[in-house]
Design brief:
By secondary structure, the protein is α+β, with helices and mostly antiparallel strands. The chain has 2 domains: about 35 residues, no CATH class; about 30 residues, no CATH class. It is about 15% helix and about 30% strand. The chain contains 2 helices and 4 strands, in the order ββααββ. A two-stranded antiparallel sheet has the order 1-2. A two-stranded antiparallel ribbon has the order 3-4. The two termini are about 35 Å apart. About 10% of the residues are buried.
């Protein structure tokens, strides 16, 4: 059973369903919507062609998630 945790922004309770779906979350759904999302996701194409080749051969994409700064709701 997942234990609900407090939101780092408003102090409210994060639903257990959200914690189960996103274990790294620190904010509730309402605060995440107000912030425009909790993370910035950066996708970079991976090039697998030989160095100096004119043919662009992309193998896939690598992703990075960067957490946005979380300021308490009452200080905004």
């Amino acid at each position: 059973m997942i234990v609900p945790q407090p939101c780092a922004r408003c102090g409210g309770e994060i639903p257990p369903e959200r914690v189960e779906a996103m274990p790294e979350t620190m904010v509730c759904v309402a605060c995440s919507q107000e912030m425009g999302g909790e993370f910035t996701v950066i996708m970079t194409p991976e090039r697998i062609s030989k160095e100096g080749s004119l043919k662009k051969n992309y193998g896939g994409y690598s992703t990075r998630k960067i957490r946005k700064p979380i300021k308490p709701k009452n200080s905004e």
